[in-house]
Amino acid sequence: MQKLIVDNKKFDGKPLSEFLLFSFNGLTKNTLYKALRKKDIRINDIKINENKMVHYGDNITVYIVDELLYKNTNIEKVYEDNNILVVNKPHGIEVTGNNSLTSTLEKEYTYIAPCHRLDRNTTGLVLFAKNEESLNILLNKFKNHEIEKHYLAKVYGIPKVNSQNLKAYLFKDNKKSLVYISDISKKGYVPIETSYTLLDKNTKENYSILDIELHTGKTHQIRAHLAHIGLPIIGDGKYGINEVNKKFGCKIQLLCSYILKFNFNADSGILNYLNHKKIILKKEHIF
Fold first, then answer.
1. Which end of the chain, N or C, is more open, meaning fewer C-beta atoms within 10 Å of its C-beta?
2. Active site residue 45
């Protein structure tokens, strides 16, 4: 069983089949319509037997075995040693959960644990610990901001300032799987900080390539924060602009975690050898 929320505005008012075939890379139309005939799919906890329209915010429950929902995923390993593993997460897969990046790696490793998360539709570097001692050290390093994470984003628009440190406040709406950004402090909002540096721009097509560094790691922070300042990520169906995404023919958000740098300030035990190490995703593997 899998539960989903229609959290992409482009599926509002679209057939259920369109949303599910996009959400599950191994699902076929034959399997989908068989499940409908058997009433194995629910919309907002109501059994259905036809390809109904879905709406933004709908809760979808799918009673189809995972083997028919997901393809086997080949995971690219970017760096590995006795204590850590860094992989390139593809689009459309969660870091944890059923048929996730972690569950796929668990088939190969006796112990493997993610040290941080990426959104389902964000690609790029994910750091895993291969033993409990390494996991505890790395979680502490992330907490103390001793591991630098950089993302590459293709955004619509060109920033007026080439490099900027942005501060704002974020509210997470769990029911809608959506976050909101405010420039002023409000009840329920938490502080966020995001930095960007302009790497390239195309004035004719009105887009920019930005290097982004997270100083706080909140849900959808990069996507929502950039959209808030008028630089939505191209291909982002939730915080982006549908007309822009269509213009660029882009169905997936162009956001990739491409640099991990270890900046340890204190003794790091068995991981001392990683200090000052930088892991960079090859250019041809971005987007």
1. N
2. no
